[in-house]
Amino acid sequence: MTYFEFDNDVRKHGHLYLVGVDEAGRGPLAGPVFATAVILPPFFNDERIKDSKQLTAAELLELSDVIKEQALDYKIVHVDAPVIDQVNIYQATILAMQRAIEGLKHEFHFVLTDAMPLSNLEVGYEAIIHGDETSLSVAAASILAKVARDAYMDKLAKLYPQYDFENNKGYPTRKHLQALDTYGPIKDVHRYSYKPVQDALNKQIKLF
C-alpha cells in the first residue's frame, strides 16, 4: 500500500480532510522540538514524499516547497528547551502537536499522528506506528517539521559557531559533546534535563 492509498482508505470512512501531524527534534541536546500539522488536498499525491529521514537535504527543501504550495493549510510550531526541561520531551512534543493542530484554520475531519497519543481533539484520531513511513499526510508533516527545525538550528549556528549546530542540528555528535565540555551549555538553548548537558554543566560548576 502506498502512502497515498493509506490516506485514501481513511477518507473512505467519511474523513475527507485529514490532518497529518509529526515532530522533529525529540532526541537532540539543544534547540526546540518542532511539530507540524498539515492538511493536503484529498486528491493530491507526490510519490517523492516519504519519511523525512530517508530524504537528502536538497530533496527535503524541494518537497517542503511543494507541500507548502499544495497544502490547504499547515501550521509549524516549536516548544523551546526551557519548556522541555520543565515538562519533559514527551509532554513537550504533545504540546507542540496540539498547538499546531489548533493553529489550523481549514476544516478537518480526522487526525493522523506518528505514534503520539493526543487528547482534547474535536475529531477522531489515529496514532500510527511509523506513521511517517505509512501516511502521505504524516510524511508531509515530517518534512515540514524537519526543514523548519534544521533552518532554526542553522541560525543558532551563526550565533554559537563553536557548537557545530549547522552540522549536528543539536544532536550529540563528538564535536558537539567536546564543545559542551569546553564551553558548557547555552542557557535557553541546551536541554538541561538531558544527561550529557547535566554532566557538562556540573563540570563547569566544578571548574569555578
Written account of the structure:
The chain is α/β, with parallel strands linked by helices and 208 residues long. It folds into two domains: 153 residues, Nucleotidyltransferase, domain 5 (2-Layer Sandwich), CATH 3.30.420.10; 44 residues, no CATH class. Helix content is 46%, strand content 14%. The chain is built from eight helices and five strands, in the order H-E-E-H-E-H-H-E-E-H-H-H-H. It has a five-stranded mixed beta sheet with strand order 3-2-1-4-5. Helix 2 packs across helix 5. The mean pLDDT is 96.
What layout of secondary structure does this protein have?
Layout: H1 3-11, E1 18-24, E2 33-39, H2 57-70, E3 73-79, H3 81-87, H4 89-102, E4 110-113, E5 124-127, H5 136-159, H6 165-168, H7 174-183, H8 195-207
Parallel strand pairs: 1-4, 4-5
Antiparallel strand pairs: 1-2, 2-3
Reported CATH architecture of the largest domain: 2-Layer Sandwich
Based on CA atoms alone, the radius of gyration comes out at 18 Å
- Low-confidence segments, given as residue ranges, are none
Total helical segments: 8
Distance between the termini: 59 Å
Number of strands: 5
Give the class from helix and strand content and strand pairing. alpha/beta
What is the string of SSEs from the N terminus onward?
A: HEEHEHHEEHHHH
Strand content: 5-15%
Number of domains: 2
As for the CATH topology of the largest domain, it is Nucleotidyltransferase, domain 5
Shape: elongated
CATH superfamily of the largest domain: Ribonuclease H-like superfamily/Ribonuclease H
Rounded mean pLDDT score: 96
Helix content: 40-55%
CATH class of the largest domain: Alpha Beta
Which sheet architecture does the biggest sheet show?
A: 5 strands, mixed
Q: Main sheet: which strands, in order across? A: 3-2-1-4-5
